[in-house]
Design brief:
The chain has 175 residues and is α+β, with helices and mostly antiparallel strands. It has two domains: 48 residues, Ubiquitin-like (UB roll); 83 residues, Translation initiation factor 3 (IF-3), C-terminal domain (Translation Initiation Factor IF3, 2-Layer Sandwich), CATH 3.30.110.10. Helix content is 33%, strand content 24%. The strands form two sheets. The protein has a four-stranded mixed sheet. The radius of gyration is 32 Å and the shape is rod-shaped.
Length: 175
C-alpha cells in the first residue's frame, strides 16, 4: 500500500487499508491489480480524475488537425493574382495544412489545357521548398487539380564550430 504522500506503508489487509483511507477522508484506489500482492494508493480520486482530464485537454490543444485548403485559378490568371494565391498557399503549407490547386476551364479554354498544366508546373516550382506532391496533376472534366502537402519539418542542425581560428587558438609553427 502507498500512502497519500507517496510513502510506502506496507502490506495491509483490505479492511485495514479502507479504514486508514477513510480516517484521512480520502479514497483507496487500486493502481496495479495484476501485481502480487495488488498495489493500492490512498488519494482523492475526484482530484486525480480532474487532473487527468486537464492533462488530456492540454495535450489535445497542442495538436494540429491537418486541413485541405483549396486554391482556385483560371488559365488566364494575371501575374499579381497568381503571386497572391501562391503566397497564401505557402502560408497554408507553413501552417501544416494540405493545399489543393484547381485550374478551371470554361468554354473554348478546354482546347488549351496545356495552359492549365503550365500554371500547375509553375506552382510546383514556386512551392518546391515547402511542399511535396501528394497527388500529381490530373485532369477531371473541366478542371486540372494538384494536391500538395507540407514537407516534414527538419530539425535545425547544431551550430558548427567556426573554421577560422583566432590567434589564441592557432597552433604554434612547426620548427
Amino acid at each position: 500500500m502507498i500512502g497519500d504522500d507517496g510513502s510506502q506503508i506496507g502490506i495491509l489487509t483490505t479492511r485495514e487499508a479502507i479504514v486508514m483511507a477513510q480516517a484521512k477522508g480520502l479514497d483507496l484506489v487500486e493502481v496495479a491489480p495484476t501485481a502480487r500482492p495488488p498495489v493500492c494508493k490512498i488519494m482523492d480520486y475526484g482530484k486525480f480524475k480532474y487532473e487527468q482530464n486537464r492533462a488530456a485537454k492540454a495535450a489535445k490543444k497542442k495538436q494540429h488537425q491537418m486541413q485541405l485548403k483549396e486554391v482556385k485559378m483560371r488559365p488566364k490568371i494575371e501575374d499579381h493574382d497568381y503571386d497572391f494565391k501562391v503566397k497564401h498557399a505557402r502560408e497554408f503549407l507553413e501552417q501544416r495544412d494540405k493545399v489543393k490547386f484547381t485550374v478551371t476551364f470554361r468554354g473554348r479554354e478546354m482546347a488549351h489545357q496545356e495552359l492549365g498544366y503550365k500554371i500547375i508546373e509553375q506552382v510546383l516550382q514556386d512551392l518546391a521548398d515547402v511542399a511535396v506532391v501528394e497527388q500529381s496533376p490530373r485532369a477531371e472534366g473541366r478542371t486540372v487539380s494538384l494536391v500538395l502537402s507540407p514537407k516534414a519539418q527538419l530539425t535545425k542542425p547544431a551550430a558548427k564550430p567556426s573554421a577560422d581560428k583566432g590567434p589564441a587558438d592557432a597552433a604554434p609553427p612547426a620548427v
